[in-house]
Amino acid sequence: MNNKLHGPLFLAILSTLMAFASLSTDIYLPAMPVMAKDLQGDAELTVTGFLIGFALAQLVWGPISDALGRRLPLFIGMVMFTIGSAGCALSTDIQQIVFWRVFQAFGACTGPMLARAMIRDSFTRTRAAQMLSTLLFIMAIAPIAGPLAGGQIIRVTSWHAVFWLLVVIGGLMFLSLFILPETLPPEKRVKVSLSGAFRNYFMLLSNREFMRYTLCLTFFYVAAYAFMTGSPFVYISFFGVDPQYFGWLFALNIVGVMVMSLLNRRLVLHYSLESLLKIAVGVAAFATLILALVVKMQVGGVVAVVVSIFMFFSMNGIIAANSTTAAMEAAPSMAGSASALIGSLQYGSGIVSSLLLAFFRDGTPWTMAWIMLVFAFASVVMLLYRAKSTSAGEAAHSGL
C-alpha cells in the first residue's frame, strides 16, 4: 500500500483527476443554449463528441498504463487536454469545436481512468471503496463549481472564456503531476501488444461478475447523462430558469452525491457492496418513476422535477464507488485495462443519452424523463440477474 496516497494533497490531485469528465462538460452547460445560437448548430453534439473521444481513448490508454505505469500517460493526457481546450476556445463553428472536444477528451480521459487504477494499485477491496467514496466527495466540488462559474462567466463575457479557463486548469494539473507518486512498480507492469490488449478486453467482457457490476454502472450513467445533457434545455428553455441560477439547481444534486459518498464510507464497513448497490439502484429507479409520472401528468412544475432528480442523482455517491470497486475486484490482475473498459462504457453511455435526446426531443422534459426511467430500471435488472443466478447456483450446489 502506498502510504503517500493518504495525504490531503495527493487526495486532492486524484480527486481533480477523477473530476475531469464532469469538469470538462459541466462548466459550459449554462452556455449551451448561447453556443447553439452562436455556432449555428446543435450544442449537444459537443457533448457527444467529447464522450466518443473519452470512451474510445481509454481503451488505448488502459493497456499503455499497465505497461508503462500511471504517471507518463497522465502527463501526456494533460498536454492533450490543454491543447484541446485551447482549440475549443478558438473554434468558430460547430464542426471545429466538436473536433477539438474529441481531441480534448483523448487527454481528459486519462484522469479518472488512472485515478481509479491508482486506487486499485494501492488499497484492498473495502479500503478502495472507502477511498473512492472520499474522492467522489472531494471531486463533487467540480460539478458544483463548474456550472456556477460557467453561468457567471457568460454574464460578463463569451462562452470562449470558459474553455480558456480549462486551459489554465490543464496547465496547473500538469504541474501537479510532478508531486504524484507512481503506484505501479516496474515488476508489476504487463507488457502486451495491441492485439494482446484487446484480448484482455475480450476476457473482461466474458467475465460475468465484472460485466454485471460494470453494466449496472453503465446503465445508471446513461440515465445520469440524460439529465446532464438535457437539463440546460429543460430548466433554462422549458421552465425559464435564468442561466446564472441553473448552476445552483445543478449543484443541489451534487450536494446529495457528497452526502451519500460520506455515508457510504461508513456503510461499507458494515454492509456488503452488493446490498448497498441494490438499495441505491432501487431508490434511483423509484426516483425516475416519480419523475416520469410528474412530467407526463404535468404536475408539480419545476419543483417536482428538481426533487425527483435530487433523489436519483444522490445515489451516485453509492453506485459509482461500489460498482467500480466490485467490478475491479473481479479482475485484479488487469487494473489498468479493467479501469479503461469501465470508464469507456461508463462515459460512453453518455453518447447513447445525447443521441436519444437529439433524436426524440419534443420540446418538453418527457424525452429526458423516459430515457432516465428505462435505463435506471435496466441498472436494477443487472443486480437482480445476479440474485437469480446465485439462487439457482445455490440450489444446484445443495442438490449435489
TrEMBL record:
Keywords for the protein's UniProt record, in alphabetical order: Cell inner membrane, Cell membrane, Membrane, Transmembrane, Transmembrane helix, Transport
Record bears the keyword Transport: yes
Membrane topology type: Multi-pass membrane protein
InterPro entries referenced in this protein's UniProt entry, alphabetically: Efflux_drug-R_Bcr/CmlA, MFS, MFS_dom, MFS_trans_sf
Keyword Phosphoprotein assigned: no
Annotated localization: Cell inner membrane; Cell membrane
Stretches that traverse the bilayer: 45-62, 74-92, 98-119, 131-149, 161-180, 213-239, 245-263, 275-295, 301-319, 340-360, 366-385
Gene Ontology terms describing biological process: xenobiotic detoxification by transmembrane export across the plasma membrane
Main location: membrane
Domain (Major facilitator superfamily (MFS) profile) ranges: 1-391
Gene Ontology molecular function terms on file: xenobiotic transmembrane transporter activity
Record family assignment: Belongs to the major facilitator superfamily. Bcr/CmlA family.
Entry protein name: Bcr/CflA family efflux transporter
Species of the source: Vibrio aerogenes CECT 7868
